[in-house]
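Quick question about two entries, pasted in order.
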Amino acid sequence: MRRVCIVVTARTSYTKFKPVLSALKRRGDTDVQVICAASAVLEKFGRVDLAIENDGFRVVERIHSLIDSELPLGMAKSTSMLLNDCAAAFARIQPDIVVVMADRFEILAPAIAASYQNIPLAHIQGGETTGNIDQKVRHAVTKLSDFHFPATERAATLLRQFAVRPENIFLTGCPSIDIALPVTRKKKLELDMFGQHFGVGPVMDISRGYLIVMQHPVTNQYSAARDQVQETLYAVAATGIPTFWFWPNADAGHESISKALRVFRENRHPENIYFIKNLPPEDFLELAYFSRGIIGNSSVAIRECSFLGVPAVNIGSRQNGRERGPNVTDVNVDRNEISQAILTNLNGRVGQSTLYGTGDAGEKIAEVLANIQLEMAG
């Protein structure tokens, strides 16, 4: 059987990988090897590796490579450590093909380790444009990759402009839309957000609507991370609308954001904000679907929420250049702008967009991974 190695480095990566893993498992003609690394194996980011195993997938390697640092230096050293460990892991498990996702800084490590060992590399979500270091990483991985699964037609066009062989580009849509599709058939929120102890904060009445916040550091503005998130904190608290606030990712500046959240929670005791570390992908998208809207700078607001028809207030420059559906309102890092945008634009569902797919990407990607002739692009 063909050995397909999936490298998961963060909770957002698993959201997108899960439909691919499920489709490969259903086929029965591939041996799926999951490597979990970086923030995916850490408790402070929700232990994604345990969620993967609970979903019935086999984790063959756990790599502790993330240096807990506020500085870009930590990102560089973490990537270096992961490169060494991925190279050793690939030598042990001997995959036939390695698959990486999107643009997180650390995916350069498995991409280089696979390429240098002459293991074909597949990249999901190449060809998109975003801000700061993410775009450089995404395009660098594109040049290292042999097979490409872009989510949009514009992304596929950019890949062709990068001199990628057209026969190695497979326009599949985004696999996280596969998870969003069943959510649209639900009639009401079924999660007991407080009884199931997902987070920390006051028990709120969400019967008249609630908000979601997911705000990460901007890597080329990491020193401003605390000030930036405080603008959002004050804006959201001032609205009085019940809010579920998710912890940031592991980029440089994340500790400043985490500290700002803790200080605000402990000193001001906001009555309308409930803080959450992590949710399973299906639960998060269900929570988003029945919300009034989402705030912050995460790609989920632009990608999955465009398909769900959930309005979004996108703050700052982190998602500059990313294709947008009609659900997104862009604002500066300013509490007054943010508050006004929340009150004006986040009032329930808007029109659905299929910009990022229709919900069948996992099957399409699995079919290619299982059957394509494995040759290095050269």
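Here is the second entry:
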Amino acid sequence: MSMMQELKLYDPTRKPCNWTDLIHPGQHVVFHRDVQSDIEKKPDGHFLTPGEDSTCLIFDSLAEAETYCEAKVEQISNLRCDIYDQSGKSKPPMLTYVNKAHLKSPQKYAYWGWVLVASGLLCFWIEWHWNGTIIPMVVGINLVFGGLRLAYWSKGVEKRRSTRER
């Protein structure tokens, strides 16, 4: 029987007070955030009201947490679900689920990064060919650095899922 439990992150009347002390090995925790702003949200997709307690959802297995997150991001398109194991937020999320509309392709970053680098090299050739104009050199340097930055970002795009990978 699957079980999901909503839990306040901090409750001074509870023993233990902190949520991390209540998670057992094998359990997984889901946090809800806004895709664009990274601001905490409630499971229903609404922002917390002032003074409202932060919560998380605890699942007995990773499969249950994934099934929940899959359905939730399809239901609420601007919601992001982050899944953590029993160690909590001391590590990055194990998995992040977003709606398909918000998936960013790392290949797109790499492609445009290398296009910018090639354009920068073209500017260097123009500078060498025309001797003495500084503008192509300045533009070329900026294009190369911008392109390398995009290529670097393509390697670090966080793993996001919109549907469970089988």
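Reply: The longest helix spans residues 106-130. Residues 34 and 79 are 5 Å apart (CA to CA). Hope that helps.
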